[in-house]
Amino acid sequence: MRVHVVSDVHGNGEALARAGDGADALLCLGDLILFLDYADHSRGIFPDLFGAENATKIVALRNARRFQEAKEFSRTLWANLDVDREQATEQAVRRQYAELFAAFPTPTYATYGNVDMPRLWPEYARDGVSVLDGQVVEIGGRTFGFVGGGLPTPMRTPYEIDEETYAAKVAALGRVDVLCSHIPPAVPELTYDTVARRFERGSEAILDAIHATRPGHVLFGHVHQPLARRMRIGRSECVNVGHFRSTGRPWVLEW
What we know:
Blueprint: E1 2-6, H1 13-16, E2 25-28, H2 45-50, H3 52-63, H4 67-79, H5 85-103, E3 108-110, E4 129-131, E5 135-139, E6 142-147, H6 163-173, E7 178-181, H7 188-191, E8 192-193, E9 198-199, H8 204-213, E10 217-220, E11 230-233, E12 236-240, H9 244-247, E13 251-254
Helix pairs in contact: 3-4, 6-8
């Protein structure tokens, strides 16, 4: 059995269309949408609306952890744009989702990232694409549990949920062979981004589940340039499957 796993697609539909080649199934751990490419400030919904120069400025503010200034700057840009913010954003997201969901092979098992818009997914998840969140599926005789979304941060990304709700989704999985989430367990080596030079949010609930249920693998993304891409916690192999937008390569699990 061979399963390919991707996360942090961020608009890379061309590579996504090839991600399932040679695999029995594809797993996607979220963040399909590209709002703003931190490596190329000309790409994404934000620069499409406001231009690359303004995208560069907001990236600089965020990287400097000046989140309130970034928020105010963004609010000013929207106020000067003669469109409804929610409507314009949703239209752009819909265009990306139409392309990306069409690129998914069959079967695909997917969960949400922190920059996704879950309420839109049912409109694009065709037959053969299963959306899972706080749910378990069997693939090739192994159980895979999925937990989507992120935890609250100063960035205020679209799908951040409170810790209690997130922990309840983790608990609903019970004991699984492979625990799949968008964000990593709350371990410093797995949550620190060496390029952004900051700690991203990890989940204490996932870390507790690792100690309590000892899954064989724990798969996640979210941190684009982690200090450690994998580490073992007890018997569990914890793996950041990679920033798919930049690599274009899925992580492979075989048994």
